[in-house]
């Protein structure tokens, strides 16, 4: 008999920048029994999931499916499949995840060019367009919502601004999808990837992706079917994609009518990803964005009502996360630990230049809710008071209530 106890997670309210507390419907879907990889039930759910995510990404792209792995797997799949050694990549960097795109591009052997904005700011669409005109990249890779800074890069108008430039646009929408507007086709985005653990209310471990016909043509030009499953007509084309697991040409064959065997689809993650999309679409995309806007505004007003200062250009903040400056003389980690141990509430720390300077507080997915916002603000007040911070008594929940009262 094993001496390890059964797994009983402590009750938590996850109010950081993700992961967040999963939606109960998603957990329920993920507890369902497995079926075989090519069972008609399973392939039916795969097709179903493709259609659901077309709606979530607001696209008509046939090639819309899941990459197994966390959001980073989706990012790597996109970049390694699009970029060949020596290709030019342009990355506008305004936070940690822009640096990640640059680093992955370098690992792909691309010639990487960056433009940078200080953390807490975003780019004008014109700045991006003039860098594209100067660098003439094959791929422009952008983050929409960078959780490290909480900023949301405006993308509307990009398609028009880039007209005449032969560039493939990749976008990491991991942190923003479902809680902020994203219109893949209308904004001319060729490849968009995401994750479940933010506004979609699921666990990390599945990366929805969508690819425009142009992007599909590009990766199909590098199609190399594995030797053991190759058939007549499967002639190798172009430079082989450097990763087998993240080869989008092979994943297209796997998710397509031929169901050409690749990895064993992560069944339980597919159940979860499918339910995340169903939950979102049942609510309605616009309604979900509006809910994130409302509860994000209540949290922002609440922390300001406590007398705290927020970080970054608030006109371009994502709806679902706010960066709050740690008051002078307060130990940020001790406050987070106090909230977690005494009240079961998790808020986030931060990275790089913001490490030790700000907490990141999320209101996303299942936790973009009035009770979650008010409870977090009440607890933050108590713990800050214990830490000796000068804060406005009742100012947090009071300001949030005012937002809810309209
Ligand atoms: C914008 C963005 N991109 C990528 C990632 C990486 O996601 P994952 O940890 O699921 O690989 C994150 C995670 O926080 C993120 O916020």
Task: Explain the overall architecture.
Belongs to the class-V pyridoxal-phosphate-dependent aminotransferase family. Keywords: Aminotransferase, Pyridoxal phosphate, Transferase. Its cofactor is pyridoxal 5'-phosphate. Pfam families: Aminotran_5. Residues 42-348 form the Aminotransferase class V domain. The strands form four sheets. The protein has a seven-stranded mixed β-sheet with strand order 2-10-9-8-5-3-4, with helices on both faces. It is built from 13 helices and 13 strands. Helix 12 (370-386) runs antiparallel to helix 13. It has two domains: 22-281, Type I PLP-dependent aspartate aminotransferase-like (Major domain) (Aspartate Aminotransferase, domain 2, 3-Layer(aba) Sandwich); 285-405, Aspartate Aminotransferase, domain 1 (Alpha-Beta Complex). The radius of gyration is 22 Å and the shape is globular. It has 406 residues and is of the alpha/beta class. The mean pLDDT is 97. The chain binds pyridoxal-5'-phosphate. The site of pyridoxal-5'-phosphate has 14 residues, from helix 3 and strand 6. Pyridoxal-5'-phosphate (PLP) is lined by residues 18, 70-72, 97, 143, 145-147, 172, 174-175, 195, 204.
């Amino acid at each position: 008999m094993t001496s390890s106890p059964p797994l009983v997670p402590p009750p938590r309210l996850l109010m950081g920048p993700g992961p967040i507390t999963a939606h109960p419907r998603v957990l329920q879907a993920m507890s369902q029994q497995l079926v075989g990889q090519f069972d008609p039930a399973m392939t039916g759910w795969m097709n179903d999931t493709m259609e659901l995510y077309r709606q979530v990404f607001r696209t008509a792209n046939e090639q819309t499916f899941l990459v197994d792995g966390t959001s980073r797997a989706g990012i790597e799949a996109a970049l390694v499949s699009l970029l060949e050694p020596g290709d030019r990549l342009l990355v506008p960097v305004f936070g940690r995840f822009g640096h990640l795109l640059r680093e992955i591009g370098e690992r792909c052997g691309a010639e990487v060019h960056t433009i940078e904005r200080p953390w807490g700011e975003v780019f004008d669409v014109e700045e991006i367009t003039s860098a594209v005109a100067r660098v003439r990249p094959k791929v422009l890779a952008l983050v929409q919502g960078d959780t490290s800074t909480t900023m949301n890069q405006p993308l509307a108008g990009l398609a028009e601004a880039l007209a005449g430039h032969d560039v493939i646009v990749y976008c990491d929408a991991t942190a923003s999808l479902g809680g902020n507007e994203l219109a893949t086709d209308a904004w001319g985005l060729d490849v968009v990837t995401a994750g479940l653990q933010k506004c979609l209310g699921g666990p990390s471990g599945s990366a929805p992706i969508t690819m425009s016909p142009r992007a599909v043509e590009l990766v199909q030009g590098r199609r190399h079917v594995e030797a053991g499953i190759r058939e007549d007509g499967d002639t190798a084309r172009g430079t082989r994609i450097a990763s087998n697991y993240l080869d989008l040409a092979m994943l297209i064959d796997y998710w397509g009518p031929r169901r050409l065997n690749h990895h064993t689809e992560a069944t339980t993650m597919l159940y979860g990803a499918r339910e995340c999309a169903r939950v979102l679409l049942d609510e309605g995309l616009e309604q979900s964005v509006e809910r994130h806007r409302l509860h994000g505004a209540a949290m922002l007003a609440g922390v300001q009502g406590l007398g705290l200062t927020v970080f970054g250009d608030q006109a371009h903040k994502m709806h679902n996360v706010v960066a709050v400056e740690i008051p002078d003389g307060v130990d940020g980690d001790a406050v987070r630990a106090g909230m977690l141990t005494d009240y079961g509430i998790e808020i986030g720390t931060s990275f790089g230049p913001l490490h030790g300077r700000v907490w990141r507080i999320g209101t996303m997915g299942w936790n973009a809710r009035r009770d979650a916002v008010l409870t977090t603000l009440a607890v933050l007040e108590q713990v800050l008071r214990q830490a000796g911070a000068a804060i406005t008594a009742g100012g947090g929940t009071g300001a949030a209530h005012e937002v809810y009262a309209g």
